[in-house]
Structure formats: structure tokens, C-alpha cells
Specification:
The chain has four helices and eight strands. By secondary structure, it is an alpha+beta fold.
């Protein structure tokens, strides 16, 4: 990382940023053309391993790309605040961000899909629990990104 003074090295700090972010940009590649799609997500961090979970339609460009090439990257950011200055060159932006990459696989077992959907809903509706009837689980594609590495970065001027 070029700006090591902004790097977050503590995993708990990085997980705190992941918890604050509400969109994960998933980067896929189809031949030589990159494709980035913003997605809602759930996550699990256990035994030093981060897994991001996503859901979507049963067909489409994103799924076609994943089937051809399961390698992916991701980016999420939050806590934005413009910091003004007298000179344009001294303007900056406060932020917190996490980036990483890994491999995508599809969740096909009912129990795994249920777990992923539960984690997704926990991210956005923290104080509620949900049941997912079979017809709901069968109506969506669920996939996960097994993250091989990730880093966090922040700039706070306050």
C-alpha cells in the first residue's frame, strides 16, 4: 500500500468498516473487459477467514461472467466527508475503505443459501430475524466470495 500511514492493520478495525458499509462493489472480468456491480451483501468472519455473501436473479450478465471466471475483487467505502482548504490542491476527502479479492462459488444447498440470506438480512435489519420459505430460497441465486486477502484504509482529519 503506497500510503501506509492510512493503512488499517487491525482486523477488528477493518471489520468495523465492513459493518458500516452498505454497498459492496463486486469486480468481475469477462475476457479483457472489467465489470463492476454494486451489491448488498452479508458477511462472516471466522478463524481469520472473510466470506462475503450475495444474492440475485437466477440469470443475467453477472452470473454468466462468474461462471466463466470465478476470480473477483471487491471494494466498499463509507464515512465520507469533504475537507475544504484555501487552495484546491489541499482539498481532500475523509473515508474508510476495504478492498480485496478471492474466488466466487455458488451456494446450492438449501442450508447454505439459508445461512447466506440470514447473514444478508442481519447486515441491514440487525434487530430482526427472518425465516426463508423454500419458494424464496429456490427463487434466488446465492453466491459467496471466499476472500483470499483484504486491506483497509482510512483518512480522518478530525
Amino acid at each position: 500500500m503506497r500510503r501506509s500511514d492510512r493503512e488499517m492493520k487491525d482486523r477488528s478495525e477493518i471489520l468495523s468498516v465492513i459493518e458500516k458499509c452498505d454497498v459492496c462493489r463486486l469486480g468481475l472480468c469477462d475476457a479483457a473487459i472489467p465489470y463492476v456491480v454494486p451489491m448488498n451483501f452479508g458477511y462472516e468472519y471466522s478463524s481469520g477467514k472473510l466470506v462475503l455473501f450475495f444474492h440475485g436473479a437466477k440469470e443475467g450478465k453477472k452470473l454468466d461472467m462468474i461462471q466463466r471466471n470465478p476470480a473477483a475483487c471487491f471494494e466498499m467505502d463509507c464515512s465520507h466527508r469533504l475537507v475544504e482548504a484555501e487552495e484546491a490542491a489541499n482539498y481532500t476527502m475523509e473515508y474508510e475503505s476495504v478492498i480485496g479479492h478471492g474466488r466466487i462459488s455458488f451456494c446450492t444447498e438449501k442450508s447454505e443459501k439459508n445461512k447466506a440470506l440470514t447473514l444478508l438480512m442481519k447486515k441491514y435489519a440487525k434487530d430482526r430475524t427472518f425465516d426463508f420459505p423454500d419458494h424464496v430460497i429456490e427463487s434466488v441465486t446465492v453466491f459467496k466470495l471466499d476472500v483470499s486477502d483484504f486491506t483497509g484504509k482510512r483518512l480522518k482529519k478530525r
